[in-house]
Structure prediction request, 173 residues.
Amino acid sequence: MHCPNGIDSWWKYKKDKITEEKSYQPSAGVPNHIKEVKPVYARFSEKALLEQCLHGKTLNQNEALNKMIWERAPKETFIGSQEIETAAFDAIANFNIGATARINVLKSLGIDPGQFTMEGCNKIDVQRIKSAEYKEKDDSKKRRKVIRGKKKKRIDALKEVEGTQYSAGEFAT
Prediction:
């Protein structure tokens, strides 16, 4: 609808309608691997599932893995499917085993990891365990719950004053 009509159109289909040429070639459409993801996307966007994420009830493990993948393959930069696949494999290995998974990958490739690589991976794993243990403590959980509650109250107060500012899938007119 934003494409101009007539001979000045940048869309070959509209241009061909006027000039009666055959320069427009329709594309093959959406690739099959994208079509395979659509049902999964539809299931994850069901209202019942999304409602479980309200009021601090989140899918923490999925979010954590997703964050790890996008740290390795940022959405802002275009990369190919192989790079995303590699980022996903690395994130999953790191998520399940830890940073020492990289050492296992290097060894399986026939590369002997150096001293600093070993120390660095071990340090990352120790820090990750310490962080998890801290977050598991009752006082740490209570503190996060209080902070989350205060944030929710603030957001609810703003909603009451301003009304809903954003709703997924809707546009303000």
